[in-house]
Amino acid sequence: MTFIYQPHGVCSREFHFEIEEGIVQSFEAIGGCNGNLKGIGRLLKGQPVSDVIQRLEGVTCGFKETSCPDQIASALKEYLKNNG
């Protein structure tokens, strides 16, 4: 299933996930730190959604209260809320 999320408070404008049976199959970010987000996408592949949330939630970026990893966790929490 394709899931698209618009993050808040970060440089990235949009996240694209492919999720099957609760496992992240792929992740792509539009905007943001290209190399870092490509690396994060590779690390997310094959990981359970719940594990990704646990690992990334609360990560900050500089002076911001959030970060792209934290917004990935927020996106996946929304995914679980809407898709069980």
Question: Would you give an account of this structure?
Answer:
With 84 residues, this protein is of the alpha+beta class. The two termini are 13 Å apart. The mean pLDDT is 97. Strands 1-2-3 form a three-stranded antiparallel sheet. The chain has one domain. The chain has three helices and three strands; from the N terminus they run βββααα. Helix 2 (49-56) packs antiparallel against helix 3 (68-83).
The number of distinct structural domains comes to: 1
One letter per element, helices H and strands E, the order comes to EEEHHH
Helix content: 40-55%
The structural class is: alpha+beta
Distance between the termini: 13 Å
What oligomeric state do the depicted chains represent?
single chain
Q: Strand arrangement, largest sheet?
A: 1-2-3
User: Helical segment tally?
Assistant: 3
* CA gyration radius, whole angstroms: 12 Å
| Envelope shape | globular
Note the main attributes of this structure:
23% strand; alpha+beta; three-stranded antiparallel beta sheet; single chain; 84 residues
List the helices and strands and how they pair.
Layout: E1 2-5, E2 14-20, E3 23-30, H1 34-44, H2 49-56, H3 68-83
Antiparallel strand pairs: 1-2, 2-3
Short summary of the structure?
By secondary structure, the chain is of the alpha+beta class.
